[in-house]
Write a structure and sequence with these properties.
The complex is a heterotrimer of chains A (478), B (121) and C (421). With 121 residues, chain B is α+β, with helices and mostly antiparallel strands. Chain B is built from two helices and ten strands; from the N terminus they run βββαββββαβββ. In chain C, the strands form eight sheets. In chain C, strands 1, 2, 5, 6, 7, 8 and 21 form a seven-stranded mixed β-sheet that branches. A five-stranded parallel β-sheet of chain C has the order 10-17-11-12-13. Chain C contains eight helices and 28 strands. Classes of the chains: A alpha+beta (478), B alpha+beta (121), C alpha/beta (421). The interface between A and C is large, with 56 and 55 residues.
């Protein structure tokens, strides 16, 4: 079957693919996004530290440095335009010994060189004044006030929904099997048929090397680097207010302790390189390591309040740099590969950078009707009392609480299902409105949310999945 | 002669009971009280259980409504009882005590409703 | 603002018994707020029998036990609101709730009775490594899906935790045609009743592996298998003891946690052992006029004791509403020691107490041939011999008001277990 002809086909509906698709939708182009899972934000984008880095980490002059600082600066306006949760909570990098201090100074200098606003070095007592739970062993720290936290689901879904509203077509459960060069551009063979496209954007995360290597002889190699995390209850969420990093030094790779934008406490990640691009299992050793190292930074982390643990894969490229741009020997094929940390922070800037590159090549102009704003999800529980009461009068289903822990109403779950790119799996609902994200982890509300999904979409209860096909929750009737 | 082992269910102590059967003569050892002896004798001569489950209900508030055997039934008949319960479909409304199977699996024991269910259109 | 004499948060067994008792004690204006669509709480899904032996002297199923109390509440014409979620309670007892019909409302309560029950410990809290596929359920979630909605959550099952819900679900799933491969229990003893071990596991030849835990969950989309391993005295897995079970479902029955979000929101002092509020002999929390009973106060073993405790909370809340003035009496503290993990209540006003006060507690390990000893300021007052004590079973001692007459300076009551020599 020969499918539609697109100007641009974006492979991958993660934060990078979604950011690029949204930027491209500003132009007069016909765009589609191919996503192998049932929803956007299903790979690297869904399991990471959720940090908007200030930008002092990467070496000056690198794309990582440039796009991180630019992406960070874009977040305030973007979060207003697209209504996702973002907070500048400050990043702090801890230094544990005098012998490591020169490395802290180097980090500071790098921050200055990268153009990170407001970086400064504090002594141990100054840090503890800001963050009383920081360990007594800390002698100094780098403070970066532009460091922030974001909901990675919120950001990705906002970008994708807005792209969708601006005409981008998202094709889910669509896995790319092969890409061939043709006279008009590319022919993309998928499990759902063949798609023709003038240009291709490779935002396939840990699979970006596979995609790239289908069309280019200059091979890429992406190593999935697994990181494990523990997420703690909201009761522990105020244990620190800034994101607390460790200076890479004699303690090895650092573990961070941070509040999340929703008020939980997050500890992690470990770093283990592996071959398997699908292995996101946690391990006893990994979780123990994350917790143990976190105690170096912060005293009294209440690990009894862990509500879930998870692991995610970073798409680490051998050269340790973002690979963004047109493949040398495959004109029209644009990579956004090797996007590991600070990828989430850089996403908006990567979107602009790559979209401009493609628009220039394609010689297209911007469209007048681009809609830059998007209405966020209704969060009934966070509204002032009168507004919430008013809302329930208008839509009574906002008055039926389904998820007790997070206070999520039936109306919000219905919204998650019926908005653009609506949720079709339990995880997709969870990522949009946080049903089941609380301390009981869906114990009470899963059956009810399943019924709502079934009712709204006509998907049979037996066919409702946690995420991709094969993850059916029930095994038929008794 | 035959011996069998049981864990007494009379109290948290959970005595390990040994029952020795010799023709008509049944002796129990390992028990600390008379309840243990009575329990073990019943378990070797005529073990019985109450079966609880749920049946499909049409026009009820939920897809299922709960039921039980009105009395205990022979332990060996549990799965026969379950088979009949699984095949049963009833109509709302029903009330606690309503008989849904008069004589389940030839035990002479009825299966009855254990939860009131109104009719919902 | 609309006002009610007593507002009860939760229409499960605790809330219903408290409501009936308060009405019988003469309070007319009572309101029950229930978040579910029916009264009866978790009993609605507990379709097995074994409830009510103490309260009704007969063996009932969960729904039958609930129906008895629902009937009593209806006979007393006690008003209730269903599908109504309380979202906030203030220190001065303003209760904010929402539902479809009325939207968001705030009402003022003369007294509040907390009866929100408890929830199950999720996988995350157990930190089980492995994938996060579909097919991992807390036992109660699976119970609801099976018993009320009629869905089969799996065909081949491994259960972690031998608490009563886990044992009951092992039998339930077996009866419905599933194969339960093994029940693994971290502790060297089961937290469930002996009767359930025999009738839910032994009857169906389901193995119970004590001192075992799940060390890996296999399967990316749906569970494909579980690895369990033996644990040492430190409860850490012993390398080399791993065993793999192929299965499509893992049920977790690893403990219950009182659901005290609203209580904490009020700033009520909590007990870290029970995860419930601290209460006095009237089951009144640190916030005046706010009472607690049932599993929100501490997790019970038998619903009969929930009803008994809630009846007391209902009476005491009624007395609070009806009282003209209160003169505070001598307050003594209650603590558990040497195997007694906690006590409920944690303090008593020995001048204003009822003639008899039941102190409930649990022990921390399985003990044989011990005594439960009560001390008043270090002096042994009573001693009760026990053949066996187990963490799964709640214990109690009853304190008489008259017993305090000889102790005008009493400060502290201690309950401890002591070995029988």
């Amino acid at each position: 079957m020969i499918g539609n002809m697109y100007d641009v086909t974006v492979i991958g509906g993660g934060v990078i693919g979604s950011a690029i698709a949204r930027e491209l939708s500003k132009y007069q182009m016909n765009i589609c996004v191919l996503e192998k899972e049932e929803d956007v934000c299903s790979g690297t984008s869904k399991a990471n530290s959720a940090i908007v880095h200030a930008g002092y980490d990467a070496m000056p002059g690198t794309l990582k440095a440039k796009l991180n600082v630019e992406g960070n600066a874009m977040m305030d306006q973007l979060s207003k335009d697209l209504e996702f949760d973002f907070k500048r909570n400050t990043s702090i990098v801890l230094c544990f010994s005098e012998e490591d201090r020169p490395n802290l100074v180097k980090l500071y200098e790098r921050g200055v060189a990268n153009g990170v606003p407001g970086v400064k070095i504090l002594n141990g007592d100054e840090v503890r004044e800001l963050e009383p739970n920081v360990s007594k062993t800390v002698v100094a720290a780098l403070l970066a006030p532009t460091g922030g936290i974001v909901c990675p689901f919120g950001l990705t879904i906002a970008l994708a929904e807005n792209a969708c509203e601006n005409g981008v077509e998202f094709k889910f459960n669509t896995e790319v099997k092969n890409i061939a060069k043709t006279d008009e551009g590319f022919s993309v063979e998928t499990n759902q048929g063949t798609i023709r496209s003038k240009y291709i954007v490779n935002a396939a995360g840990v699979y970006a090397d596979v995609m790239h290597n289908m069309v280019s002889s200059k091979k890429l190699h992406i190593v999935p680097r697994r990181g494990e995390y523990c997420l703690l209850d909201k009761e522990a969420g105020k244990h620190v207010s800034a994101t607390i990093f460790q200076l890479p030094g004699k303690y090895g790779k650092g573990i961070l302790v941070t509040p999340t934008v929703h008020g939980n406490l997050l500890v992690g990640p470990t770093a283990v390189d592996q071959d398997d691009k699908e292995n996101t299992a946690t391990t006893a050793e990994g979780l123990a390591e994350a917790c143990e190292k976190a105690t170096l930074s912060v005293d009294g982390v209440p690990f009894r309040q862990v509500i879930t643990s998870f692991s995610g894969l970073r798409a680490h490229e051998d050269g340790d740099e973002f690979i963004i741009g047109e493949a040398e020997d495959a004109p029209g094929f644009f990579d956004a590969a090797g996007i590991e940390s600070p990828g989430l922070s850089s996403a908006p800037a990567i979107g602009v950078y790559l979209a401009e590159m493609i628009a220039n090549k394609a010689v297209v102009s911007k469209k007048a009707e681009f809609k830059a704003t998007r209405k966020g999800f209704v969060k009934a529980a966070s509204l002032p009392v009168e507004e919430r009461a008013e809302l329930i009068k208008e839509r009574p289903d906002y008055g039926t609480i389904i998820c007790r822990c997070e206070n999520i109403s039936e109306g919000e779950i219905v919204d998650a299902i019926n908005r653009p790119l609506g949720a079709r799996s339990m995880d997709a609902i969870k990522r949009r409105v946080r049903q089941g994200m609380g301390r009981c982890q869906g114990g009470f509300c899963t059956p009810k949310a399943m019924e709502i999904l079934s009712r709204e979409t006509g998907i049979k209860m037996e066919e409702i999945c946690k995420n991709r096909k094969g993850s059916e929750l029930i095994k038929g009737e008794e | 002669m035959e011996t069998r082992e049981f864990t007494c269910i009379g109290c948290p102590l959970g005595c390990q009971l040994t029952v020795t059967m010799n023709a008509d003569d049944i002796t129990v050892t390992g028990n600390t009280c008379p309840r243990g002896e009575a329990y073990a004798k019943k378990e070797v001569t005529n073990p019985t259980r109450i079966v609880t489950s749920s049946v499909v209900i049409k026009h009820g508030p939920l897809a299922r409504v709960s039921v039980k055997t009105a009395n205990d039934i022979p332990k060996g008949k549990i799965f026969d009882v379950m088979k009949e319960i699984r095949e049963t479909v009833i109509e709302a409304p029903v009330a606690i005590g309503d008989v849904v199977i008069a004589d389940v699996a030839g035990t002479g024991v009825p299966v009855i409703i254990t939860k009131n269910a109104e009719r919902v259109s | 603002m609309i006002q009610h004499d007593i507002v009860i948060i939760g229409g499960g067994p605790a809330g219903l018994a408290a409501a009936v008792a308060a009405r019988k004690a003469g309070v007319q204006d009572i309101l029950i707020l229930e978040r579910d669509g029916v009264l009866g709480g978790i009993l609605n899904q507990c379709i097995h029998n074994g409830f009510g032996l103490h309260t009704f002297k007969e063996e009932l199923t969960g729904p039958e036990y609930a129906a008895r109390f629902i009937e009593m509440a209806k006979e007393e014409n006690i008003p209730y609101k269903l599908n109504t979620m309380v979202i906030d309670i203030s220190k001065d007892r303003e209760v904010a709730f929402i539902n479809k019909e009325e939207g968001l409302q705030v009402i003022k309560a003369g007294a509040v009775i907390l009866a929100m029950g408890c929830r199950e410990r999720p996988r995350g809290a157990l930190n089980i490594p492995g994938y996060r596929p579909a097919g991992i359920y807390s036992a109660g979630t699976a119970q609801r899906l099976m018993n009320m909605e009629g869905y089969m959550v799996g065909k081949e099952v491994v259960i972690l935790g031998s608490g009563d819900i886990g044992l009951i679900m092992a039998r339930r799933m077996t009866l419905e045609g599933a194969t339960v491969k093994v029940v693994a229990e971290l502790m060297p003893y089961s937290g469930g009743l002996k009767r359930n071990i025999v009738q839910c596991l032994d009857d169906f030849n389901i193995p119970l592996k004590l001192s075992h835990t799940v060390v890996n969950i296999h399967g990316k989309e749906r569970v494909t298998g579980i690895t369990i391993a033996e644990v040492g005295p430190d409860r850490k897995p012993v390398p080399g003891t791993e065993e793999y079970y192929s299965c499509d479902t893992l049920l977790l029955s690893c403990g219950l946690i009182p659901e005290n979000e609203l209580t904490r929101g009020m700033g009520v002092a909590m007990n870290p052992v029970t995860s419930g509020p601290m209460v006095n002999d009237k089951l009144e929390t640190g916030t005046e006029g706010v009472f607690a009973c049932g599993n929100v106060l501490h997790v019970h073993d038998l619903v009969d004791y929930v009803s008994e405790e809630a009846t007391l909370a209902g009476k005491d809340a009624a007395a609070f509403v009806n009282q003209t003035e209160k003169v505070a009496g001598r307050v003594v503290t209650l603590t558990g020691e040497n195997g007694v993990r906690y006590t409920v209540p944690q303090s008593m006003d020995i001048d204003n107490m009822n003639p008899l006060v039941t102190v409930r507690f649990r022990v921390g390990d399985v003990y044989k041939d011990r005594s439960i000893c009560v001390y008043y300021d270090g002096k042994l007052i009573s001693k009760m011999k026990k053949k066996v004590l187990a963490p799964g079973e709640m214990e109690q001692v009853i304190l008489k008001k008259e017993s305090f007459e000889e102790y005008p300076e009493l400060k502290e009551i201690v309950i401890r277990t002591e070995e029988e020599k």
